[in-house]
Amino acid sequence: MKKQILQIENTQSSDFIPQIVLELKRALDDDNKNNIDSEKLLTREETAEMLSISLVTLWKYSKDNIIPAYRIGTKVRYKKSEILLALKKMNQFK
């Protein structure tokens, strides 16, 4: 989110409150969309493509519990939020 400076002079609060409410609603809607997107389940192929790794490497990461995998019937799925979290952990300098 970018920061902006707003200077208000000779204005009543009733003039800008509706605009503030509208912008807050937009921000909350954008945040909800991001939460829904982060809980999206990805296939093995989508996950491997997102991480730019092979399916074999993805399988190894799942086996080593680096990236949690979920089995739904015969399909394997990955939560996008958990992939991003694992990626952050893998990229931390020690």
Overview of the structural elements:
By secondary structure, the chain is mainly alpha-helical. 57% of the residues lie in helices and 11% in strands. The protein is built from four helices and three strands, in the order H-E-H-H-E-E-H. The protein has helices at 13-38, 44-51, 55-63, 80-90; strands at residues 41-42, 70-72, 75-79. It has a three-stranded antiparallel beta sheet with strand order 1-3-2. The longest helix is centred in the N-terminal third of the chain and has 26 residues, at 13-38. It is elongated, with a radius of gyration of 21 Å. The two termini are 29 Å apart. The relative contact order is 0.12.
Topology:
Blueprint: H1 13-38, E1 41-42, H2 44-51, H3 55-63, E2 70-72, E3 75-79, H4 80-90
Antiparallel strand pairs: 1-3, 2-3
Helix content: 55-70%
Q: Give a count of the beta strands, DSSP E runs of length 2 or more.
A: 3
How many DSSP helices?
4
What letter string, H or E per element, gives the SSE order?
Answer: HEHHEEH
Distance between the termini: 29 Å
Looking at how many chains there are and whether they match, the oligomeric state comes to single chain
Question: Are there runs of 5+ residues with pLDDT below 50, and where?
Answer: none
Largest sheet: 3 strands, antiparallel
Give the neighbour order of strands across the main sheet. 1-3-2
Shape: elongated
Determine the mean pLDDT. 82
